[in-house]
Amino acid sequence: MTPEGVKDNDDLVERLAQKSAEVNVLRRIALDINSTLDLDQIYDIVLRTMDKFFGFHHSIILLLEHVDRLRVVASHGYKDQALGGTVAVGTGVIGTVAKRRRLMRVNNLRSQRAYFATIRSQMEEAGRTGELGQIVPLPGLADADSQIAIPLVIKDRLIGVFSVESREPKPFSEHDETLISIVASQAASAIQNALLYRAAEERRKELAEAHEGLKQLNETLEDRVRARTKELEQANRDLRETQAQLVQSSKMASIGMLAAGVAHEINTPIGAIHSNADVERRAVDVIRGILQDPALVKKLGHQPRLDRAFKIFEDVNRITLEATERVTRIIQSLKSFARLDQAELELVDLHEGLESTLTLIGHLMKDRIKVIKNYGKLPKVQCYASQINQVFANVLANAVQAIEETGSITITTYQDGSYVLIQVADTGVGIRTEHLDRIFDPGFTTKGVRVGIGLGLSITYRVIENHHGSIHVQSEPGKGTIFTIRLPIAR
Amino acid sequence: MMDKAMLPDEIKPVMESGIPAIVVTCSADGIPNATIISRVYYVDKTHIALSFQFFNKTIRNVRENPQACVAVSDLAANIKWILDVQYDHSETEGPIFDEMDMQIEAIASATGMAGIFRLRAADIYCVKSFKKLSFTSASSRE
Amino acid sequence: MIPGKILAFLEDEGTVAVSGTRETNLIPHIHYVAGWEVESDKRTIRCYINQAYTDNLISSLEDNRQFCLTVTQVGSHETYQFKGDYVGSTEPNHDDLAAHQRIKTSFAKAVSQVFGFPEEMGLAYIPRPSLVVRFTVREIFLQTPGPGAGHRLFPPEEK
Question: Residue B108: inside a domain, yes or no?
Answer without folding.
Answer: yes
